[in-house]
Amino acid sequence: MLTKSDFLKYTQCYKYLWLHKYRQDLVSPEAKSALKRIFDEGYEVENYAYKLFPAGVSAYDKDIAEAVAKTKKLVKARQKTIFQPTISNWKVFCRADIIRRYTKSGNWDIYEVKSSTQVKDIHLIDLAFQKICFEENWLKIGKLYVICVNGEFLRRGPIDPKKFLKIVDVTRAVEALIKKVGLDIEMAHKILENKNEPEVKILKQCHSPYDCEFSDHCRKHLPKDSIYGIAGGLSTEKLEMLLDQGILEIKDIPEGIVTNKSGLGYINAVKSKKVFIDSLAIKEELSSLEYPLYFLDYETFGPAVPLFDGYKPYQRIVFQYSLHIKRSPDALLEHYQYLCASIKDPTSELLGSLSKFVGEKGSLISWNKSFEMGCNKEMRERKKQHALFLKSVNDRMYDLMQCFKKGYYVHKDFKGSASIKRVLPVMVPKLSYKDLNIQEGGTASESWLKVNDPKIGQKEKDDLAKDMLAYCRLDTLAMVEILEVLKKL
Ligand code: SF4
To answer: Which of 102, 162, 194, 388 has its CA at 20 to 30 Å from residue 116's CA atom?
Structure first.
């Protein structure tokens, strides 16, 4: 049977569908937990959508046959709104979020709930699949809607679903897709008849519209310095052209294909096996820094459903900072940190703490400063009493990533990236994220909820908090050490 989620994978990449159906063993635990995060967020939004239909009745059942029977029963009983109606035959399985009978015509409208703030093409395909499945199985469908999150919603008190969500009529756009989706359903069934894993080129579809969880599997045959590592990425046309010629390694890329500065720098570093360093440009770049130097990093959590007043959907809650201070070139390194220990709006506490340590003079240093500056801008809007402090912090913020992004220091092992995770092990081999239990921002973000989850034991919470502090601390210590290396150049 082809389920709705199978079919959506097919529309992204037919190999994705095949692997999803037959090789679940290849999905890493990290990919599984990232998927779970997305699903959990979806369920939360869905619960608010149900509140828009107070008289709705659920047809949900774990057992497919039971869910189908319940749906039929509710339809027969002329129930007006049904949650999680399910249909299935030997060919397809489909569970909608909400269907509602339009009294005059007796047709059913489908409402698909999405946690995004905009309707996307994939949502239309999703609804086209549902319409085809329901119509093939005894329900006449009328209008089609996407219920998504209103990005402009600002929380003030309890959440009103009517303000938090918006309903978008997409009937005409979906109707235009029905024929194609019908043909694609047939094609998807054919792919599933294949005994062997299909061959598909790694292109844009691997990350769009969703990150494919089989990326590691599909990339395992790639050489160390592959054409996919080019900084800034190659266009689909150029990638296809290289792949058609059997070119997979950077060293074999003909001249004229890559034209951007950082991409060319990376290619030269790979081909010459030399490190490229423009020490004059680095000196010039760093000349604006003034002591004391404040190395700052935030950790954030941005839920679809705002947790506190004053937040919009997906707006970042800054729950943690790490701050290293170097008051003069020879001064001892100081370190300060904050981690909010309960689920409450941490902004006042965090800023109260940070403003004690950051003085009126000196440069603030972060990696990819637009992130920290964006957080500061949002906090400034919520906490007017800290507006001057946050403005001054942003005015003095320097982005250490620029030396790498601008291609002043290029090492082939950065793999064309300027991310701190790639730069640190090359520049400062003694420091590594690999030794930490938390190794990336997504896990740190998720951990904040866990640290305050009453279902989790104290020992686990303490360990988690320690891991979070260690992770954030390494982000700022890494900047301190990388700057030292750059200065010596
Ligand atoms: S990684 Fe890319 S090519 Fe491989 S299955 Fe996923 S989408 Fe298809």
So the answer is: 102
